[in-house]
Structure formats: structure tokens, C-alpha cells
Amino acid sequence: MGRAISHLEWNTGVTTKLHEVDSVGFDDRFNDGKCDPAGRFWTGTMGGQIDNMPTYEKNVGSLYCLDTNGTLVKHFNKITVSNGLAWSPDKQVMFYIDTPTRKVEAFTYHVTSGKISNRRDAIDFRSFPEESMMGWPDGMTIDTDGHLWVACYGAGKVICFDPVTGKALKEVIIPAPRTTSCCFGGKNLDELYVTTGPNGAFDQELRYFPLCGSVFKVTGLGVKGVPANIYERDVDSRL
Predict the structure, then answer these.
(1) Residues in contact with 96: Cβ distance below 8 Å, sequence separation at least 6, in sequence order
(2) CB of 76 within 8 A of CB of 59?
(3) What predicted TM-score, i.e. pTM, was given to this entire model?
(4) Which fold has domain 4-218?
(5) Is the Cβ–Cβ distance between 196 and 182 less than 8 Å?
């Protein structure tokens, strides 16, 4: 919610502001967030939109972690559009996307302390011959084999990557070019749900792709996702 992290009581609709970060740019805000295997909530901010390209104010965002005791920790800054997060099935690696970099970065992840280290590139869209057809990495998820599924904004597809080799393994075409995120769901976690957005779409684009803004379900991929992590606050925390 803007620059604030809030708690929503689902049954009553009551929201409680937990933290609000200082403004660095002219319209910076939180964007994507996800819980880690220990129940901490990670989320990052992004710069304000400058034009309809869209272009965003550069390097004003930061990546934060809301610990289970309610403490908010900033891990690093100089982010432009904070997006996808995922953790390897063995809980050893955290993956992260700052969309304009066109990369998926990897960090050594310490599940007990919540610390991250050894920042490096796992996937670089710019290294592929077909990079112009790959769009921009946005939200992502991971399967039980440790492969990343990355929603490619502007390309109408989700690409599965091996983060160890950096190679693209499979792609799923979505009939809406502004693919924003994806996650596994269904009874057996073998269905891939893909979100798309209509924001910024031109009239001609909407005529060609009338399903812009829809949520899609993809079946028959032959893989399963890992269960979503849930925020686990300490018993004596005041959140």
C-alpha cells in the first residue's frame, strides 16, 4: 500500500499499518512481495513512472525484509523496479528480479538468520540471441526441480529456466503480452497460474489481445510447484 506495509484482518477488513518507509523518489512505492521459508516477508520498492513507455525513476528502490519479530530490515538499495522473488527447494539460494536489469540474480540464503550474501547473476536475458523476443523479467516462481518460471512482461510468455546453467528450458505462450507474474496452484500444485495486466495497453493491442488483464491457468506441464510460505510472526511480537 504505497510506501507502507500493513496487516489486513481478512474477516473484518481492518488494516493496521506496521511500517512506512521514507520517500526517496517522486512517487516510489512497494511493488512485489513474498515470504521466505522461515516465514519472513520480503518486499521491494520501485520508482515512479516517468512516461508511457513505461519508464521508471532509476535506482530509488530498496529490498526489505519484515522479520518475524516485526523488525523491518533494508538489505540493499539502488533498485528501479523490484519484482520477482523465489527460494530454492533446498533453502540455500534466494532469487530476485529488478526488472530493468533484465536479469535474475541469486544470493546465498541463510534460512536461520535471514541474511543474504554472495550476490551474482543467475540468468541474463541479454545473453540470449532471441533477447528481443523475451520481454522483461517480472514475477516468478520455482518448481520442485529448482527450475525458475519467469513471467516475461511485454512478450506474452512465461519462460522456464535452469538457474544453475542459466539456460532456457521451456516457454509457455500467453495470449496477453503484459504477463506480470505466475505461481503454482491446484490440489497437486501442478497448475501454473499466470497474471497479466492491461495497464498501458494501446487500443490496437487490446483489439488483438482482448484477454489482457486476465488470469490464465496452464496445465500439463509435468512439473509441480512448492507450497507458498506464510508469514510466521513470533508469539511475543506485537504485530
Answers:
(1) 63, 84, 85, 104, 105, 106, 107
(2) no
(3) 0.94
(4) Neuraminidase (2.120.10)
(5) no
Nearest to 85, CA basis, from 20, 41, 55: 41
Whether 40 has a binding-site annotation, put simply, is no
As a whole number of angstroms, the distance between CA 9 and CA 53 comes to: 37
What is the residue type of 206? L
Whole-Å CA distances, 159 to 46, 135, 142, 206: 23, 10, 11, 23
Cell 519484515 sits at which residue? Answer: 66
Catalytically active residues, by annotation: 138
Instruction: Please say whether the beta carbons of 106 and 93 come within 8 A.
Output: yes
Cα angle 96, 105, 219; round to 5: 60
Q: What are phi and psi of 214, to 5 degrees?
A: -90, 165
Distance CA 11, CA 13 (A): 6
Quick: pLDDT tens for 102-141. 999 999 999 999 999 999 999 999 999 998 999 999 999 9
Q: What does the alpha-carbon distance between residue 140 and residue 184 come to, in Å, rounded to a whole number? A: 10
Within 10 Å of residue 227's Cβ, how many Cβ atoms? 8
Cis upstream peptide for 54 (omega within 30°): yes
- Domain locations in the chain as residue ranges: 4-218
Contact (CB, 8 A) for 102 and 122? no
229 is in an annotated binding site: no
Q: What is the pLDDT of residues 2-33, one digit of tens each?
A: 999 999 999 999 999 999 999 888 889 999 99
- CA–CA separation, 181 and 229 (whole Å): 17
